[in-house]
């Protein structure tokens, strides 16, 4: 009898001790286990956006084509400023706002956070690059780099930079005479700032529109510019 009472007392004591424990001291429930396992199985969820972009790199060719495209847009911008300076005209606020918008886009896409966009833009520029390169090799001095050939398409930039030591020759860019008005190369790059960047209000939309335009070999801009080079 005493033995049974002793066993009962011990049982009640142990039960009481367990009842006083907090939920976290008891056997973990299935939700807690699953959460811990998920954390262990999915370390990529903790990876930052910048770390993900660190795995994306440009090839030498991709980097070169991306830089040429951006350089051409930069030269167009400088050419316009040189034009206003040479003509002694004030730059309108509308023009200032447009180029400010371009500067913001250039900074956005040139950032290391947007390497993927740089790759895509470089690939999209491939057809235009080949048209320009083919024409350069066919029509101009082979010692000239592609960037120099593109720079030569912008008359006012040349005059402002080199004080007319480099002479503009429109025949290299589609004109039937050494002067104006036809210049398919400058018109091509003009389009992306004056039309596309002007039209869209976010960097993402500008990027997508430029990419789409570059990829469409049958687009109006190709038909009126680079496809006219011969």
Notes on the protein architecture:
With 230 residues, the protein is an all-alpha fold. It has one domain. Helix content is 66%, strand content 0%. The protein has helices at residues 2-19, 30-41, 49-53, 60-86, 93-110, 115-124, 126-139, 146-151, 155-162, 184-199, 203-215, 220-224. The longest helix has 27 residues, at 60-86. The protein starts with a helix and ends in a 6-residue tail after the last helix. Residues 22-41 have low confidence and may be disordered. It comes from Borrelia duttonii CR2A. This is Mlp lipoprotein family protein.
Averaged pLDDT? 81
Described by strand count, sense and barrel closure, the largest sheet is: none
User: Helical residue percent?
Assistant: 55-70%
Rounded Rg: 32 Å
The end-to-end distance, rounded to whole angstroms, is 114 Å
Low-confidence stretches: 22-41
Q: What is the number of domains?
A: 1
The ordered H/E elements are HHHHHHHHHHHH
Could you tell me the number of beta strands?
Answer: 0
Structural class: mainly alpha
Strand content: under 5%
Which key terms come to mind for this protein?
230 residues; mainly alpha; 12 helices; 66% helix; Mlp lipoprotein family protein
Topology:
Elements: H1 2-19, H2 30-41, H3 49-53, H4 60-86, H5 93-110, H6 115-124, H7 126-139, H8 146-151, H9 155-162, H10 184-199, H11 203-215, H12 220-224
Protein name: Mlp lipoprotein family protein
Organism: Borrelia duttonii CR2A
């Amino acid at each position: 009898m005493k033995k049974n009472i002793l066993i009962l007392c011990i049982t009640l004591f142990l039960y009481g001790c367990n009842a006083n424990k907090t939920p976290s001291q008891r056997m973990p429930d299935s939700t807690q286990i699953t959460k811990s396992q998920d954390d262990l199985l999915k370390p990529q969820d903790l990876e930052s956006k910048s770390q993900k972009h660190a795995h994306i790199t440009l090839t030498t060719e991709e980097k070169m084509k991306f830089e040429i495209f951006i350089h051409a847009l930069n030269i167009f911008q400088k050419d316009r400023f040189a034009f206003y300076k040479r003509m002694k005209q004030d730059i309108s606020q509308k023009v200032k706002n447009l180029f400010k918008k371009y500067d913001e886009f250039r900074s956005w896409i040139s950032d290391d956070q947007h390497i993927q966009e740089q790759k895509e833009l470089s690939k999209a520029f491939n057809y235009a690059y080949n048209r320009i390169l083919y024409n350069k090799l066919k029509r101009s001095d082979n010692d000239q780099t592609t960037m120099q050939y593109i720079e030569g398409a912008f008359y006012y930039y040349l005059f402002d930079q080199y004080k007319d030591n480099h002479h503009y020759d429109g025949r290299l860019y589609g004109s039937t005479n050494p002067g104006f008005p036809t210049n398919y190369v400058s018109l091509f790059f003009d389009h992306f700032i004056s039309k596309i960047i002007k039209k869209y209000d976010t960097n993402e939309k500008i990027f997508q529109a430029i990419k789409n335009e570059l990829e469409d070999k049958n687009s109006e801009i190709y038909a009126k510019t680079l496809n006219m080079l011969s």
